[in-house]
Amino acid sequence: GAGVSQTPSNKVTEKGKYVELRCDPISGHTALYWYRQSLGQGPEFLIYFQGTGAADDSGLPNDRFFAVRPEGSVSTLKIQRTERGDSAVYLCASSSHDRNNEQFFGPGTRLTVL
Amino acid sequence: QKEVEQNSGPLSVPEGAIASLNCTYSDRGSQSFFWYRQYSGKSPELIMFIYSNGDKEDGRFTAQLNKASQYVSLLIRDSQPSDSATYLCAVGGYQKVTFGTGTKLQVIP
């Protein structure tokens, strides 16, 4: 596809459950970013991949959060033992390595933890 | 001190007027500066980027950067009701950007 895609668009889960959120970046984009956005706030950085490796994971809030990008394209954000405070829109963005951080966002996944 | 600061608004301007959106940042080493537009319930959309001091114009949009004052702004000329959205300022280096909380713009017909 032409843009960044994310699945699912909505995810409702119960406290304590495990969830996986998927991001498919723009073809050829080597950089991939995960953000979390709460109502009335700007996107909050979680993790950045350059190729297959996590170049910066300083934004992951705790060890319940983990992300992978095994083949340098699709990425999965994994959240264990979900808490109500994890409820937010999770955004993925991708960027070409030769365009300094001009990031293009996917539609997001709205996660609701009951 | 927040790394990227924006007035949350709302900023209300009449249709046809110039809307001026402002952003300050704390990291003097910042290299890249972006403006994103976000409609309610949608994801951010990149509308402008600027890397050097001065002005950069693209259609009705002008981005202005003053690194000495750590200040970046976005001017929207001939504002339209369709410009009503939240505008996010993002500042960063070559790998990571930090977003402000956004300014809500309302263009009144």
In short:
With 114 residues, chain A is mainly β.
List keywords for this structure.
heterodimer, A: 114 residues, mainly beta, seven-stranded mixed β-sheet, four-stranded antiparallel β-sheet, 11 strands, B: 109 residues, five-stranded antiparallel β-sheet, globular
Rough outline of chain A = globular
Helix content of chain B: under 10%
Proportion of β residues of chain A? Answer: over 45%
Rg from Cα of chain B: 13 Å
Q: The biggest beta sheet of chain B, please?
A: 6 strands, mixed
Q: What is the strand tally of chain A?
A: 11
Largest sheet of chain A at a glance? 7 strands, mixed
Question: What structural class results from the helix and strand content of chain B?
Answer: mainly beta
Largest protein-protein interface: A-B, 23 and 26 residues
Helix content of chain A: under 10%
Shape of chain B: globular
